[in-house]
Every structure is written in structure tokens, then in C-alpha cells.
Design a protein that fits this description.
The complex is a heterotrimer of chains A (about 425), B (about 300) and C (about 325). Helix content of chain A is about 55%, strand content about 15%. Chain A is of the alpha+beta class and about 425 residues long. Chain A has a 5-stranded antiparallel beta sheet with strand order 3-2-5-7-8, with helices on one face. In chain A, strands 1-4 form a two-stranded antiparallel ribbon. Chain B is an alpha/beta fold. Chain B folds into 2 domains: about 210 residues, 3-Layer(aba) Sandwich (Rossmann fold); about 55 residues, no CATH class. Chain B is about 40% helix and about 20% strand. Chain B contains 12 helices and 10 strands. In chain B, the strands form 2 sheets. Chain B has a 6-stranded mixed beta sheet, with helices on both faces. A 4-stranded antiparallel beta sheet of chain B has the order 2-1-4-5, covered by helices on one side. In chain B, helix 4 packs parallel to helix 7. Chain C is mostly helical and about 325 residues long. Chain C has one domain: ABC transporter involved in vitamin B12 uptake, BtuC (Orthogonal Bundle). Helices cover about 70% and strands about 0% of the residues of chain C. Chain C contains 15 helices and 4 strands. In chain C, the strands form 2 sheets. In chain C, strands 1-4 form a two-stranded antiparallel sheet. In chain C, strands 2-3 form a two-stranded antiparallel ribbon. The longest helix of chain C has 27 residues. Classes of the chains: A alpha+beta (about 425), B alpha/beta (about 300), C mainly alpha (about 325). Chains in contact: A-B, A-C, B-C.
Chain lengths: ~425, ~300, ~325
């Protein structure tokens, strides 16, 4: 299932408190030893009382109930893996549990300084309770933030498609591996995120962009492998990378050591975490630079010329292969940034790329396959659509709304919002 | 179709009374096009106000590179969508018709970049052209006895047609193994398998070696002799002179002149159009014009 | 390491239920991709339709098993229409995108809480929905050929499964030798040429999509019948790509390609998996654990798929000459 990338402060309160408790130790709560405390509130921030929560594994089961302030405390009896479950029947009328359901897995590990905590499905940013009348402004902000991230990936997808004709089915894995590179540097090597992120962006751009193009796609273009063949190669590559991620990093989602949990800010009634704001600013700056670069730099202009007509561009002395090399490097850089953003706002998992790829496809199809501004407009539209659709359909099906809109678009205006008719046939 | 044959003299007599100006009326037009417009972004590729093609004639459509000839071809045969205009085949409006329906109605075309089906045999290529094949329906295809009789007829017709184009001995080869000129021939043969009323040839001479050119000319004359109207786009002036009854000149998307081949090239507008743009490239280039790049 | 056991397992699986399922799915792709050049990246959607039609018709709606089969085929044809309508007029990659997206839409819909009443949500549908099928089982006990053994139920599924494969292959054989098949191959080479010859390319592509889709649905039938359960998460998009690997292994546009490919694929997959498993548990590969065997096998599939397209797009037994002509 696709998980939200955008942090929803009000809803994070449940898991957020868990994190705070664990990181700050027992003094922050009345608990004697390790355990979880938390606050459960509805989307408007109103605390919910009388909701029962169970912390259980095969040996133990402890239940807590929220008080008038919506708060609860549960102590963990021993180290081990626990399932935290909200009892759905104890929720007030009109409030339902959203995807991925009322359960979270957490692990208490015996570390050198007592029990330490890590989350298995560490969806710190994940919304777990949902009220159908979620506020529209909140959904739109969430959607725009998510759309911005998708735009990074979609931009690369469109640039590569525009210059080489390849619909790259392994583009999602570029997000995954960007996020995992940062995770490796941050979690395993122990680098600060402020250092790990730029480093992994550069590594991704080089390895997944430049090297991939130089040693896989360029030789294939030389051999004259057709586009259909190349699409299948990209599928093979996606499988290879996806399962390499699974074999290397395991099936559980991973969190970065820093910025995993953050309390949400309330800005005019819209909850946003500071990290989401900062990341959004970075994304906007990066997108602006890329758009400026494409418009004004020599190689950017060449890129557009190649996109419009490779043969003509080549005939006028543009080194098409050099342009493609730039495009791949840039595309991988943008994809890695998108992956890391999702990793910070949410978590890193081996299959994140697969579902995000479909959302990117929906975005570029909506905006116009191969167009640069289309990627941006399509992504923001799809981002908002996915969030706002939860007003009428269950949250677990919100991705479906994006894919459905894509199919409708193909039926009535296959070239997308900004595309040209000639490009589709 | 009727087995009426055409005599060159007869056709040239018809043209005697036709005005030599753009969009002139013909006594019996098989094609009639009005106000056909096609734009690519800001560029108007085709802007044809009025055009008639005489039935039974061999008409050439010429013009410098980028004149919009191939685009116009694509529009008439529904392989591209116009921004405006109406056109008729045998007085029937074919503006919105699908390419396949148009072919069934008797207007068939070939392509500038030959579309030989590489991994099919030459014979299969030709057989694909035949109409009314029972075995082309999914359910009948499962039962060979249902379609084998028609298949044998089709094969006979295909072999006869291939023989006319000197391709019979290559019938078992993959079409992809043919030379460029042979592919042009094959494509023409395949189109004739439909027994069309009119055939539109997009640069039939492009990439064909000089030895083969003469026989191609003969084939085109033969096509007309059997009653099929021919409209072709061409760069090769010799060919235009040799076989066409009437020449239509396009430049910058518009028709700038019409007339018999010997006279039309003396028209000052035509000379301006050629000299003013790509006269040299026009004479030397082997047919790969930029005019069609914009359609792709 | 017990090489005999490994070989037995590999041999059994190479003609077992999985091989049949993937052979049918790949046979559908052979019609669509191999002969017509349609890039259906959502064959698993047809399997979902097959599996869930049987399970839901019988368990949730109380229909009979035989009704369920009809429901499955009809749903499959409707799905083809939905997929084909917006995309078959467009460039090949649009079909690819829409089919993979639709396969995910279907999976998300059947696993949704909202429709749990009919499709069982995340747990899927489990129950004796194929009882009427097993009631016809003529085998009194399991059958075995040499080292290959199937249980009583599996024997029946395998028998019917291979009969289905035989029928599907026969249909492929008859069709691809007919004028109908000639048009499909023509569309694969250049659809505009076929259009210029007066054939309705759109309709032929639709027929190919439908026929191939029905074959995918048959695969879904066998999949559901064999385990008497359907679970949404066993229908991930990767299933489609395994079927592509199988098709390309056996050779696209070759009548027996799917059969050859499926047998080899499952032999290799099980062989590699079992060998890895045994060597790891014997401690020969200290840096790997047995939980990594599953993913590693699929890494091989991915690499295999890439290598096939790059080095042997005509399949392992294919003829290089034919391919040299094609631009794909």
C-alpha cells in the first residue's frame, strides 16, 4: 500500500508521543520503565477519551485507556516485539481508522543502556485515525507538499522520456535507492543528515544517473535496441533493484536517526511539521533552479532542442549523447531528493518506489508525457487529488483515484494538459 | 471496380480545357478538398484553399522541402488530423473517416518511408492487401476449411501481383531482407492488392536506384491504364515530366500553381518558390525532406 | 547438500501448478506482446479477475463453481474493453502504463476494507469454493512419475491444467497460422501499414487483448482452484513480469515459447532457491541468511529478464536471423 508522505501533525500525535517518551526516557512520563505514552485526538485536535489501546505480543498483553485529555500510558513488560492496537470499537461515532489499519508494530530492544526502542512500521507521519470531514485546507496543503515531492521524480521521468523516448519503469527505484543511500550514511555510518543528504544526492546522481546511462542505456541505444525492448529492460532493472533493496535492507521500513518524529505546527488551522516545510522550501528552490537551467543554460536549451527533435538537434551540432548524460544525472539527483524527502517525512521501504512510480506516471500523463511544466502541474494536481479524494473514498483507495483520473485523461485528452497531440499517436 | 481503361491522349484532352491556376476546376474530380488547414504550433504547414484531382489522371504534387506535401497527403488519408477543412472522395465526405475505412472505399496510399513488414514474408506482405478475407475473422480463423478456399485465391492474386513487380522469386524471403527499391515495389504491389480506385504514392522514387526507376515508371503508367487514379508526391523532376498529366505545385503550405508538366515549371511563382528556398538541396537530395519530419 | 532432493523439487515444480499458471499467463502475453506487439504490463489484473471471480461468486454470492467460471470469462472480456478503449489508439507505452496501473487498482480494490464483505480485504477469500471441481477428481490417490509426486488434489489440478495449456497452445497454433494471425504480426511490424490496407487495427488489437486476457484469466482460475484461496498480495505487478521473463525465455512469437519458458523458469528458480537455501543453512555462505533466498531468486529473475532482452531477445532457442530484421 502507498503511504502518505506528508506529515499530518494532528494525527501524528498518537505515534509522536510514543517517540517522545522513548527518546526522553521515563522522566517524561509517569512510567517507571520503558513503554509508550501517547495522546489520541480526532482530526480537529479534540482529545478522544475512553479509547482503549493494547500493547501485546505472544507472552504479554497490556491495555491502556485514554483519559479526558486523550492521553494513555502503557509500560512494556520485557524486551521484544509488540503490536500496538487501537480498539476500533472504543472510538466515538464518525471516526474510523485509516489505512494501514489500527495496528503498529514496535520493538523494544535490550541495549547497553537499558531497553531502546525502534518502530517496525515506523510510520511516524502516518495518519491512523481519520474523520471523514477532514478539513479541506489541510488536505490541500498535504496534497501540495506531496505533489512537490512527486514533481521531482516526475520531472526526471519526463526529461528522460523527452530526450530518449524511454518510459523508464525503474524510475521508482531511483527514489528508493536515493533514500536508502541516505539511510546507510545516516543510520549505519552515523553521519549527520545535513551531511548524509547532500552526499547521497551526489552519489545517486553519479551512480544511478551518470553510470547507469553510460554503462546500460547508452550501449543499448548504440545497439539499436528498440524502445519496447528498453522498456522491458527497465522492468528487469526495477525487479533487480527492488529485490536487491529487500535482500540488503530487509522488509521492514526504516527511519533516519534524525528528524524522524517532530511535533506539528499549527499554521492557520493547518498542521504541518517543520521538516516538511523546510523540505518543501528546498524542493521549490531545486525545481526553480532546474526550470531556470533548462530555460537559460546552454545545455538546458540543448535539452529542449533534443526533446523537440533529436535528429534535427543532432544535425545542428548538438551532442545528443552529452545532453542525455546530463538528463540522466539530473533525473537521478531529483529522484534521490524525492526519495529522501519521503524517507524523512515518512519512512524508507524497499517497495516505496513501485507505488510512487505509478503516481508519477499518473502525474506525467495528466500533465503531458514528456513536457517539463506538465510534470510539475500534473504532480501538484495529483497530490491534491489524492488527498482531497479521501473526503469521498476510503483513504486506502486514495491512490486508486489518481490512477483512475489518469485513465480518464487518456480517454478524453491523451496528450495531457500541456502535451501536444502529435506526441501520442 | 469497372474495367475501364484510360488512354493518355484521352486524359490529356480532358486537361486541355482546365484552367492553369491554383485550385482550378476539373471536369470529373475524384478528390475535392476545401480550406484544409494544419498547424504545428505557430507554423501553418498546410493551408490549401481548393483542390480537385481529375479521375483517371496521373497527378503529381511537387514543391520545395517543407512545402507541406506529405502533411497534406497524411491529412487526406486521415493519418493526421486537420485543424480545419473538408475533403471528399467520389463526392463522399471523408474528412472524419478512419484510414482503414478509406482504404476499403478504394483510396489507398503508400508511405514516404516504406512500411514493409520486415518479419513477414514478401508473399504474406502482399496477401495482407487483399480484401474480403474470411480467415481474418477471429472465429473463422480457427477452422482452416472455412478460409482455405479464399486463401488460395488471395495467394494466386498475390503471386500475380508480385510477378508484375518482379518480386515473385523473393516471395518466401522476409520483407526486411529486400533492398530499398524492392520495398517500394512491394509496398506498391501490396496497395494494389486492394484493387483501389485511387492510389496515392508518397515519393515512390525516393531511395530507388536508377535502374529500377524506369520499371517503376512503367508500373505507375500501368496502374493508371487499368483505371486507377494516381496522385504522387515527388522530388524527381524527370519522373514528373515523364508520366504526369497534371502537376500541382505547393509552397509553404499553399498551392501556388497548377498545370501540365511542361508548362508549370516555367511559371514564375514556381521558379521563385524553388530558387527562393532550397533549389539546390531539392535537386540533389535523395528524397529525405524535412517536410515530413514535422509530421512525425 | 542433498542434490537429489534439490533436483526432485526442481523437476516437480517445473511441471507443477506454478509452471501451469505462469505458462497460461505467458501464453496470453504471447498473443498480445509476441504476435501483436501490445505491451500489456498488467497481465496479473486478468489473474485477479479469474481468481476473485471464482472465489467471490461461490463464497460471497452463493453461485455455483461453473457459474463462477462464466463470470470470470465475462469479467475478463470487460476488463479488456476497459483497458483497450483509452489506450489502443495511443502509443505503446500508454497501454503499458494503464495496464500496470489497472492491475494495482484491482489489487487495492479487492483488498480494501470497504469491500471486505465480498472480497475479504487483506486476508482475501478462503474456503472450499472449488469443491465442485474436486468432486470430479478421478484420482483415488496422488500420482507419481519417477521422482515427481503430486498429492491427490494436485494431480487433478495438474491434469486439467496441462489440458488447458494444450488447448491454449493449439488455439495459438491455429490462429497464428491463419490470415487473422497474419494481421496481428503485421500490426506488430507496423500498424500504420496495416491501417492503410483497410484493416481495423484498433479492433484487431482489442481482439488480441481479449484473447490474451482470457488466457490470463485461466491462469487466475488455476491459481485460485489449486490453493482454494485468493489473497490480494499474491497478485502484485511482479507476477506479470515473471510471465514476461518466461515468455522471453521460451521465445516470444513462438507457439511453444510459453511452455518451454515456464518449465525452464520454474526449474531454475526452484533449483537456485533450494541450492542457496541448503548451502546457506550448511554455513557455506556466511554473509547470507535464509530469509534472503527469496529476494535473491527474484534478483536473478530481474537480471535474467534484462539479459534476455539485451542478448537473446529471440529466446534461448530462437533464431537470430528473424530478429535481425526487427527493429525492436
Amino acid at each position: 500500500m502507498f503511504k502518505r508522505s506528508v506529515s499530518r501533525g494532528l494525527f501524528t500525535s498518537f505515534l509522536l508521543s510514543i517517540f517522545l517518551t522513548v527518546f526522553m526516557g521515563a522522566q517524561a512520563s509517569a512510567l517507571e520503565g520503558p513503554g509508550i505514552t501517547g495522546k489520541i485526538s480526532d482530526p480537529s485536535g479534540k482529545p478522544l477519551s475512553g479509547v482503549s489501546i493494547t500493547l501485546a505480543n505472544d507472552e504479554n498483553s497490556v491495555t491502556g485507556v485514554t483519559d479526558q485529555n486523550g492521553q494513555f500510558e502503557i509500560a512494556a513488560p520485557t524486551a521484544g516485539k509488540y503490536l500496538v492496537t487501537i480498539d476500533v470499537s472504543s472510538l466515538p461515532e464518525g471516526i474510523s481508522i485509516a489505512d494501514p489499519g489500527p495496528q503498529r508494530e514496535i520493538v523494544f530492544i535490550q541495549g547497553p543502556k537499558g531497553l531502546i526502542f525502534k518502530t517496525q512500521v515506523g510510520t511516524s507521519a502516518d495518519q491512523i485515525i481519520e474523520k471523514r470531514d477532514s478539513k479541506v485546507p489541510q488536505l490541500i496543503v498535504d496534497g501540495l507538499l506531496f505533489g512537490l515531492t512527486i514533481a521531482l521524480g516526475a520531472m526526471g521521468l519526463n526529461l528522460i522520456f523527452g530526450t530518449t523516448g524511454l518510459t523508464n519503469f525503474s524510475h521508482g527505484e531511483l527514489l528508493t535507492f536515493g533514500a536508502f543511500t541516505a539511510w546507510t550514511l545516516n543510520y549505519l555510518v552515523g553521519l549527520n543528515m545535513l551531511l548524509a543528504v547532500p552526499l547521497s544526492l551526489m552519489m545517486s546522481a553519479f551512480l544511478w544517473g551518470w553510470v547507469q546511462n553510460r554503462y546500460l542505456w547508452k550501449p543499448l541505444r548504440r545497439r539499436g535496441t528498440g524502445l519496447m525492448g528498453m522498456m522491458i529492460v527497465s522492468i528487469g532493472l526495477a525487479l533487480t533493484l527492488r529485490y536487491t533493496a529487500l535482500a540488503t535492507f530487509g522488509g521492514s521500513p526504516r527511519n533516519y536517526n534524525q528528524y524522524a518524529a517532530q511535533p506539528g505546527l499549527n499554521i492557520f488551522g493547518v498542521a504541518v511539521t517543520p521538516k516538511a516545510i523546510i523540505l518543501a522550501v528546498i524542493e521549490i528552490v531545486v525545481l526553480a533552479i532546474v526550470l531556470y537551467w533548462l530555460k537559460n543554460s546552454k545545455i538546458g536549451k540543448a535539452t529542449r532542442a533534443v526533446r523537440d527533435n533529436p535528429d534535427l538537434a543532432s544535425a545542428t551540432g548538438i551532442d545528443v549523447e552529452r545532453v542525455i548524460s546530463y538528463v540522466w544525472t539530473l533525473g537521478a539527483f531529483l529522484a534521490a531528493l524525492a526519495g529522501i524527502t519521503i524517507g524523512i517525512n515518512q519512512d524508507v521501504s524497499w517497495r516505496m518506489g513501485q507505488i510512487l512510480l505509478l503516481i508519477m506516471f499518473a502525474s506525467v500523463t495528466l500533465g503531458g508525457l514528456g513536457t517539463i511544466y506538465g510534470a510539475l502541474i500534473g504532480s501538484l494536481t495529483i497530490g491534491v487529488l489524492i488527498q482531497v479524494s479521501t473526503l469521498v473514498i476510503p483513504t486506502e483507495l486514495k491512490t486508486v483515484s489518481a490512477l483512475f483520473v489518469m485513465i480518464l485523461m487518456l480517454l478524453f485528452r491523451p496528450q495531457g494538459i500541456l502535451g501536444k497531440r502529435e506526441r501520442v499517436g | 471496380m469497372d474495367a475501364k481503361t484510360f488512354d493518355i491522349d484521352e486524359v490529356q484532352n480532358i486537361f486541355k480545357n482546365v484552367e492553369q491556376k491554383p485550385g482550378s476546376k476539373k471536369p470529373d474530380p475524384i478528390i475535392l478538398a476545401k480550406k484544409v488547414v494544419r498547424k504545428f504550433g505557430g507554423l501553418t504547414a498546410v493551408d490549401v484553399d481548393h483542390l480537385e484531382i481529375q479521375r483517371g489522371s496521373i497527378t503529381a504534387l511537387i514543391g520545395p522541402n517543407g512545402a507541406g506535401k506529405s502533411t497534406f497527403f497524411n491529412l487526406l488519408t486521415s493519418f493526421d488530423q486537420a485543424d480545419g477543412g473538408k475533403w471528399f472522395f467520389n463526392k463522399e465526405d471523408i474528412t472524419k473517416i478512419s484510414p482503414n475505412k478509406l482504404a476499403q472505399k478504394g483510396l489507398v496510399r503508400t508511405f514516404q518511408l516504406t512500411k514493409a513488414l520486415s518479419r513477414l514474408s514478401v508473399l504474406d506482405n502482399a496477401r495482407l492487401g487483399a480484401k474480403n478475407q474470411i480467415g481474418e475473422s477471429l472465429f473463422a480463423a480457427l477452422f482452416k476449411p472455412l478460409w482455405i478456399k479464399r486463401e488460395l485465391e488471395v495467394t494466386k492474386q498475390a503471386e500475380d501481383t508480385l510477378a508484375q513487380f518482379n518480386l515473385l522469386e523473393k516471395k518466401s524471403d522476409f520483407a526486411g531482407s529486400l533492398s530499398g527499391g524492392q520495398r517500394k515495389l512491394l509496398e506498391m504491389a501490396r496497395a494494389l492488392m486492394l484493387k483501389p480506385e485511387m492510389i496515392m504514392l508518397d515519393e515512390p522514387m525516393a531511395g530507388v536506384n536508377p535502374a529500377l526507376k524506369q520499371s517503376l515508371l512503367g508500373h505507375i503508367k500501368n496502374i493508371r491504364k487499368k483505371g486507377t487514379t494516381v496522385l504522387f508526391v515527388e522530388h524527381d523532376m524527370d519522373m514528373v515530366h515523364d508520366i504526369s498529366d497534371w502537376v500541382i505545385v505547393m509552397a509553404q503550405g499553399k498551392i501556388i500553381a497548377e498545370g501540365p508538366p511542361s508548362l508549370v515549371m516555367k511559371n514564375s511563382d514556381v521558379i521563385d518558390a524553388y530558387l527562393g528556398s532550397h533549389h539546390k538541396t531539392f535537386l540533389t537530395e535523395d528524397g529525405k525532406s524535412l517536410a515530413t519530419d514535422e509530421t512525425q | 547438500m542433498d542434490i537429489v532432493f534439490v533436483l526432485e523439487q526442481a523437476l516437480t515444480q517445473s511441471i507443477g501448478i506454478q509452471a501451469i499458471i505462469y505458462c497460461l499467463a505467458a501464453a496470453g502475453l504471447n498473443i498480445q506482446f509476441g504476435y501483436t506487439g501490445l505491451l500489456n504490463f498488467g497481465q496479473v489484473a486478468f489473474m485477479i479477475v479469474g481468481g476473485y471471480s471464482i472465489a467471490a461468486t461461490v463464497l460471497s454470492f452463493g453461485g455455483s463453481f461453473w457459474t463462477a467460471l462464466v463470470v470470470g470469462i465475462i469479467s475478463s472480456l470487460i476488463l479488456s474493453l476497459i483497458l483497450g478503449l483509452p489506450t489502443l489508439r495511443l502509443r505503446a507505452d500508454y497501454l503499458a502504463i494503464v495496464t500496470i496501473a489497472t492491475s494495482e487498482i484491482l489489487r487495492l480494490v479487492v483488498r480494501s476494507v470497504a469491500l471486505r464483505e465480498w472480497f475479504g480485504g487483506v486476508n482475501g477469500l478462503n474456503g472450499k469454493f472449488a469443491a465442485q471441481f474436486y468432486a470430479l477428481n478421478p484420482y483415488q490417490s496422488g500420482i507419481g512419475i519417477g521422482p515427481i509426486n503430486f498429492s491427490q488434489n494436485d494431480s487433478w489440478v495438474v491434469t486439467i491444467g496441462w489440458i488447458l495449456v494444450a488447448i491454449v497452445i493449439l488455439i495459438t497454433f491455429l490462429l497464428t497460422r491463419s490470415p487473422w494471425g497474419r494481421i496481428l504480426k503485421g500490426i506488430r511490424e507496423d500498424e500504420e501499414a496495416i491501417r492503410s490496407l483497410g484493416k481495423s487495427v484498433y479492433w484487431y488489437k482489442m481482439q488480441a487483448l481479449m484473447l490474451g486476457g482470457v488466457m490470463g484469466t485461466l491462469a487466475g482460475f488455476i491459481f485460485a482452484i489449486a490453493s482454494q484461496s485468493v489473497q490480494p498480495d499474491s497478485y502484485v505487478p511482479d507476477v506479470t513480469f515473471f510471465a514476461y521473463t518466461i515468455l522471453l525465455l521460451g521465445g516470444a512469437a513462438r507457439v511453444f515459447g510459453p511452455v518451454v519458458g515456464s518449465i525452464i523458469f520454474w526449474f531454475l528458480l526452484v533449483f537456485i532457491g533450494q541450492t542457496l537455501d541448503q548451502t546457506i543453512s550448511a554455513g557455506y555462505i556466511p554473509f547470507l541468511t535464509s530469509t534472503q533466498v527469496g529476494p535473491i531468486r527474484f534478483i536473478f529473475v530481474g537480471i535474467g529478464l534484462m539479459c534476455l532482452i539485451i542478448f537473446r531477445p529471440q529466446g534461448i532457442f530462437g533464431d537470430r536471423k528473424e530478429l535481425a530484421l526487427g527493429g525492436r
